[in-house]
User: What shape does this take?
Amino acid sequence: MGLKGKKVVKLLLTILMLLVGLTMILPFLWMLSASFKPESDIFTFPIQWIPKDPILSNYTNVWSGILPFYQYYGNTIYVTVLSTIGGVITSLLSGYAFARINFKGKNIIFLLYLATLMFPNTMLLVPRLVIYRFLGIYNTFWALILPNSISTFGTFLLKQYFSSLPSELFEAGKIDGCNEFRLFWRIAVPLVSAGIAAFTVFTFVFCWNDYENPLMFITDRPLYTIPLGVMEFKGLKTSSIGYIMAGSVLSLIPIFILFISAQKYFVKGIATTGIKD
Assistant: This one.
């Protein structure tokens, strides 16, 4: 294939990827457009992507009007931040232990740990419900925070990052008198920033969008998170679709900010993760 043929193929692939990207972003654009429309204009055909008479009442009513959406927002921030911090800390410690500390039965324990990924979350809902009632944390934020503070996926992901670091770095640290914690905190953690950033984003998005667990373990409305709060608008008699779209747009803002701010950490970690033993 000549140079001209390669350019044609590259152009066709670019067009194809552009079309695929548009199909993925169109629902978000429709959601954004519908959030500024009155109920009567949302389902008009052909679709009016730019509202003729945009309104802000959907947002004002959602945030401080019909339902205490601001409270749902605060609950979600509280649960998500604590869950993410706990998940990152425990995954860092366990990932480093499995990657860099030799102890008896390490491989067997790690395989058993990974085996828990085979169990779907829905199968564990009833046992977790019984345990939470026994511990007295049912219908509390701890029923959402504690399970997300331990992540098998995070342990596996960060173990791979720790395992990719050169052993010479740790040997040099031991020669300089570093104990195990200093090796972990001063050498290992700064070099796996890409893995930490990736896992932080995954955990934050999962906890922020989690609907199944709050639905099962939270019953009091003042403890609702955003996914449950958005579904509350379905029971309203007027403008429920507009409210749902406005609430969905508001719920995406923290995730969008997180993705934008975390990009530089992904790039920063690429150079260090390319070094292998």
User: Anything to note?
Assistant: Confidence is low (pLDDT under 50) at residues 269-277. Residues 240-273 form the longest helix (34 residues). The radius of gyration is 24 Å.
